[in-house]
């Protein structure tokens, strides 16, 4: 085993494909000189670009793949057409074979998750995977999961999410014992579905050593940064994420129209231009780029499809950090402590069990 | 039956009680001269205020109530202590007895919903009530329901929500056949829970005459104003609403801090002050005041607890409009058309069935 961090890239994913992925990888290499790459994509599209980045080329293995998954391919379609043959599949396969430590793709989320489940399988102790988003807040950032990998969650799955999310938070935020909240609704008496209440009881009573359970949180607590990790079932989590994105865009639209309505406002805008530029950057949903797929037997990072080279590099570096701090072992160790039922002898066979 | 619109008010609800409710009612009366009021509250708190509004006093019946439900009372506690005796209960009872056409309270949502279910019961054709919010969007406003009355929803309940929400939209927006979307998650293959998919099929195939079904919408479509009515189960709806409120506050915080960071920004702020004031008003979550409780055998409006007299008047006028345009008959007629199984002869006994 080398000490290098080996990163497998799907060069054909995202709105811009190799023209973003390859310069993005070059950027990462400047900042993470111990990275190595396996780049999967169409030779005719990738090799000329790779020539322009000789430093990157020197630490890259290029592997040609015939098929590129489109951004609007349905997961089943992507699996049918792209299994074994697409750059997305091959990027994951490099991790599966142990040739790479992490796979990064800006391709479509549904296809990437379907292929990840099929190719990498879920961890022995985890039933179902999750997507974790890094959510900008007033106080900094919060990890929110699941934002759409799996619909419906029993109490155990919510506890798994708490453990996986806090392992990720330790790495991303560099803190011990991140605070974890369970997303719920406010009205006392009907407080949430049974699964959420039951997960709350488990998290409270078990006093897990690697996380600090902070109780229920509500939708408006996410943006406040009330906790480091917000745990929720994937349907509600996806709706919360999309609603927040929509509201941020709505506010930006209001602001633009307010600033162009009167002459005074226009003059004010000219003076405050710098402040507005800073604000725009802060409100940019692409700023926090990179969803992390958790619960799989391998690390997979999803970059936003519309990311530029800087944005894609941020996603790659997120993956790099996960490898460097050994996310998978952290999760496995936490789960072993918390759920000793998943003892090593039974766990040996589990990776072969097909996931949902 | 008089042609007047008879409005029953809980004067003790909200953060400010009668000092907002009574001036709010006076404001409404200026704009809706055919309104009459029954005001429920503590005589010592209300009567002196009522003296200050002689025009209102002339069309008001005042009824003393010993108990005021507190904003932090749990629903069960409120029911135990306040049933029959509180101003909140009495306000609802006026509707139940047929003395008023609508009840308005700024009291706590959980208590008001619990008492409404207990006092008014649900409509014959509806199993469970809902709370509808009026959500500001880029294009105007959208009705979103359920935002937290009921957790979990089967397909029939989602269809009920679509029918009730579109009846409300017809009145609030003054349009025929409002467009209705079902809130769902984006990934094609795993699109939503079974109930949402099944409700989508019913809405598509039945081609309901009073609404125009627009298919699934995602969280970010709400703020875009993609449809007139967004239908969702109460847990996800409550989380979406709270998340949007949190994000709006977060954006306002970013904006404030951006505008005070540099001298240039501060100068710009002075020029654009008018624009910022307009923007602040637009971003104010209290602007769209008044949740409507749907599915009950009576009209109940919940005003925001923090509303001022103007805000409370807006909630009262929302209730007035619902009465004037006969919301309950609209809903009942729609439901009869769509679900003829709830035929008049079987429906007669149904109001006696205790609701959940």
UniProtKB/TrEMBL annotation, chains A, B:
Database matches in Pfam families: FA_synthesis (PF02504)
- Which SUPFAM superfamilies does the record associate with it? Isocitrate/Isopropylmalate dehydrogenase-like (SSF53659)
* The protein's Enzyme Commission number: 2.3.1.274
Gene Ontology BP, a term: fatty acid biosynthetic process
Please list the GO terms describing molecular function.
Answer: phosphate:acyl-[acyl carrier protein] acyltransferase activity
Q: What is the top-level taxon of the source organism?
A: Bacteria
The answer to whether the entry has keyword ATP-binding is no
Subcellular compartments = Cytoplasm
User: Where are the coiled-coil regions?
Assistant: none
Keyword field: Acyltransferase, Cytoplasm, Lipid biosynthesis, Lipid metabolism, Phospholipid biosynthesis, Phospholipid metabolism, Transferase
Q: Which InterPro entries does the record cross-reference, listed alphabetically?
A: FA_synthesis, Phospholipid_synth_PlsX-like
The reaction(s) this protein catalyses: a fatty acyl-[ACP] + phosphate = an acyl phosphate + holo-[ACP]
Its pathway, per UniProt, is: Lipid metabolism; phospholipid metabolism
Sorted alphabetically, the Gene Ontology cellular component annotations on this record are: cytoplasm
* EC class of the enzyme, as a word: transferase
**What quaternary arrangement does the UniProt entry report?**
Homodimer. Probably interacts with PlsY.
Q: Which family does it belong to?
A: Belongs to the PlsX family.
Cited function? Catalyzes the reversible formation of acyl-phosphate (acyl-PO(4)) from acyl-[acyl-carrier-protein] (acyl-ACP). This enzyme utilizes acyl-ACP as fatty acyl donor, but not acyl-CoA.
User: What's this protein's name?
Assistant: Phosphate acyltransferase
């Amino acid at each position: 085993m080398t000490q290098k961090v080996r990163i497998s890239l799907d060069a054909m994913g995202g709105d811009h494909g190799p023209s973003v992925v390859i310069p993005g990888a070059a950027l990462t290499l400047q900042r993470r000189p111990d990275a190595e790459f396996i780049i999967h994509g169409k030779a005719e599209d990738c090799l000329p670009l790779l020539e322009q980045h000789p430093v990157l080329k020197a630490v890259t293995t290029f592997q040609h793949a015939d098929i590129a998954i489109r951004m609007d391919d349905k997961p089943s379609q992507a699996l049918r057409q792209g299994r074994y043959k697409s750059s997305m599949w091959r990027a994951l396969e490099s991790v599966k074979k142990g040739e790479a430590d992490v796979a990064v793709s800006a391709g479509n989320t549904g296809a990437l998750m379907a292929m990840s489940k099929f190719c990498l399988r879920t961890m022995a102790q985890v039933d179902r995977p999750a997507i974790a988003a890094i959510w900008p807040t007033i106080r900094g950032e919060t990890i929110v999961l699941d934002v759409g990998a799996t619909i419906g969650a029993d109490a155990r799955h919510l506890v798994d999410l708490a453990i996986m999310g806090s392992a990720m938070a330790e790495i991303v935020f560099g803190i011990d014992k991140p605070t974890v909240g369970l997303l719920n609704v406010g009205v006392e008496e009907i407080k949430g579905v049974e699964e959420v209440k039951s997960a709350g009881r488990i998290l409270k009573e078990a006093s897990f050593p690697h996380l600090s359970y902070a109780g229920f949180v509500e939708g408006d607590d996410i943006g406040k940064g009330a906790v480091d990790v917000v745990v929720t079932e994937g349907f509600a989590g996806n709706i919360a994420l999309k609603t927040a994105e929509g509201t941020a865009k709505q506010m930006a639209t209001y602001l633009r129209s307010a600033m162009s309505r009167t002459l005074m406002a226009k003059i004010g805008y000219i003076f405050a231009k710098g402040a507005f530029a800073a604000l725009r950057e802060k409100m940019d949903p692409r700023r926090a780029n990179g969803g992390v797929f958790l619960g799989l037997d391998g690390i997979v990072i999803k970059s936003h499809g519309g990311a530029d080279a800087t944005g894609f590099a941020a996603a790659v570096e997120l993956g790099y950090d996960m490898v460097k701090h050994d996310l998978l072992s952290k999760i496995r160790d936490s789960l072993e402590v918390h759920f000793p039922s998943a003892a090593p002898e039974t766990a040996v066979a589990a990776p072969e069990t097909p996931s949902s």
